[in-house]
Sequence to fold (103 residues):
Amino acid sequence: LPVFRGFLLSRDDEIRRELLLELFCNFRLDLDALSERFGIDAPAYFAKELEQLGEMEKDGLVEIRPGLLVVTDTGRFFIRNVCMTFDRYLEKNPQSRVYSKTI
Fold:
């Protein structure tokens, strides 16, 4: 019988895990710190996702600043929706329901 069960994570998985952890726990993401930690240009790496957050920014749920993404007080109620933007596994099959309805 196996004694240990684990998952092999790709580099992208590790980057996104850190991003989601920061957003879910702290309601903010320091893109500069993420860039430094993983040796990437985070704003370029997540350009598509940051562009998609534009509608949420218009709705007052997030604030996108140079090097920083902040979830507003109102946006905290919709943190799952904000974080779903960065979940690349949801992209692959948008028709299947992975989570319960958020609203």
Remarks:
- The longest strand covers residues 62-65.
- The CA atoms of residues 85 and 91 lie 9 Å apart.
